[in-house]
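Researcher: Good morning. I'm working through a list of sequences from a screen, and I'd like to move beyond sequence-only analysis. For each chain I'm collecting a predicted structure so we can compare shapes side by side. This is the next one on the list. No need for commentary yet; just the structure.
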Amino acid sequence: MRDYELVYVVKPVLDEETREGVQNKIKEIIEANGGEITKVDAWGNRKLAYPIAKFTEGFYTLVNFKSSVELPKELDRNLKINENVIRHMVVVCD
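Model: Good morning. Structure tokens for this chain:
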């Protein structure tokens, strides 16, 4: 198992319940594929470097997890489909 970091940005206009729904969906995907979440850190609303889909701010969340090499591909696929996520990035931690 390898260590990964996922940073995702959701629309700033979402309510708390919808943001938690996105977070729970990510948790379900990781756990269903044999991964383990080690840390979740909500950074809150921050200004974006450039406008994305007419938004100048976004709600950032960092998720550290351990998994096999196939899980980030599945996570990437699901986050691309989710209309509430405007950007995401999964990286391998050394």
